[in-house]
Amino acid sequence: MELEIKLIRDHCLADLNEVEELKALDNVRIKYLGKKGALTIALKGMGKLSSEERPIIGKLANEIREEIEQNITQQKQALEQKEMEAQIREEVIDVSLPGKKHLSGNLHPLTTTINELKEIFLGMGFTIEEGPEIEWTKYNFDYLNVPKEHSARDLQDTFYYKDDIVLRTQTSPVQVRVMQERKPPLRMISPGRVYRTDEVDATHSPVFHQMEGLVIDKGITMGDLKGTLDLFAKKLFGEQTKTKFRPHQFYFTEPSAEMDVTCFKCGGVGCKVCSNTGWIEVLGCGMVHPNVLKACGIDPDVYSGFAFGLGLDRIAITKYGITDLRLLFENDLRFLSQFK
Ligand code: 2U9
């Protein structure tokens, strides 16, 4: 038994000399000192020893276990030191090296424009409403007083999913839904994506962004419309901006108009941005047509309202001097990173 346990010690110390890393060290400890370890197993034979031999072997066995455990502890400290030094070597930071440039994204010019408009109307007490992009034709056309045979309903203008389901061509259905759900007074804007079967070119895209607004209350007049939209123009393009309204025609408003603002580039004297007119067309607007009020369960003899609609993409490309609408959708980082 003495020889046997000394052999086990020698083998164990030999194995310990081979150890290169902490995990292996633990395996050696288990192999010799573990429950099924060689030394543990050998010492199970202690029972067969004579009463003279037992204390001697016992003492030797404890010495050997002690020696092995000491050796393991030293090795462990040495290996941990070695691993730490390796880690320090790996993690050494050469502070003279330039830092890694973290490319931070930035808001898309469309998002910046939408947020700017939202801030202006929130400041005027408007709510921001959203609604489905896939819409019933009754919300996209019928309730908006668009005649059954109007070309806007045609396939070449509108994406049809089914006879009575389309991709919305404007965000007006959102206002209709709110007018049917909530009673006046109402003051809201509805920004969002709209779809029309337009060919893609420098100024058209089958998917683009609009923002419409609506005010419904007792005694709302064209004066309220002009005052509100004039203030909006001054907040968006600058306090010196002037506005003018030209008569126009929409089915969902009567009377209707289009609003121009003095060119923010040349202040109205005429330049490339305003094609030398001094004015830039910004939006369409009008007093909500009584048929639309009725279709939404609002009595046109008690309430009146005004509405407006603008193309967000057009506002963004005008404000940022972007010459091609497609740049807004092509996700070219060289273009987008200009708006940091
Ligand atoms: C309701 C009643 C009336 C929304 C309006 C316009 C005028 C308008 C165009 C702007 C640019 C469409 O994308 S565009 O080509 N829109 O000029 N939109 S009044 O009128 C409404 C909306 C909802 C219930």
Automatic annotation (TrEMBL):
**Principal localisation:** cytoplasm
Q: Which cofactor does it need?
A: Mg(2+)
Give the UniProt subcellular location, in the record's own words: Cytoplasm
- Sites where the protein binds Mg(2+): 254
Q: What class of enzyme is it?
A: ligase
What NCBIfam families does UniProt report for this protein, alphabetically? pheS
Aminoacyl-transfer RNA synthetases class-II family profile domain ranges (all copies): 117-316
Q: Kindly give the HAMAP family that the UniProt entry links to this protein.
A: Phe_tRNA_synth_alpha1
The protein's UniProt keywords, in alphabetical order, are: Aminoacyl-tRNA synthetase, ATP-binding, Coiled coil, Cytoplasm, Ligase, Magnesium, Metal-binding, Nucleotide-binding, Protein biosynthesis
Q: Which residues form a coiled coil?
A: 61-89
| Record text on cofactor binding | Binds 2 magnesium ions per tetramer.
Q: Which family does it belong to?
A: Belongs to the class-II aminoacyl-tRNA synthetase family. Phe-tRNA synthetase alpha subunit type 1 subfamily.
Supply the gene name: pheS
Provide any one GO MF term from the record.
phenylalanine-tRNA ligase activity
Concerning InterPro entries, the annotation shows: aa-tRNA-synth_II, aa-tRNA-synth_II/BPL/LPL, Phe-tRNA-synth_IIc_asu, Phe-tRNA_ligase_II_N, Phe_tRNA_ligase_alpha1_bac, Phenylalanyl-tRNA_Synthase, tRNA-bd_arm
User: What range does the record give for the signal peptide?
Assistant: none
Quote the protein name from its UniProt record. Answer: Phenylalanine--tRNA ligase alpha subunit
- Quaternary structure and interacting proteins, as annotated: Tetramer of two alpha and two beta subunits.
Q: Which domain of life is it from?
A: Bacteria
Reaction(s) catalysed (UniProt annotation): tRNA(Phe) + L-phenylalanine + ATP = L-phenylalanyl-tRNA(Phe) + AMP + diphosphate + H(+)
- EC number(s) recorded for this UniProt protein: 6.1.1.20
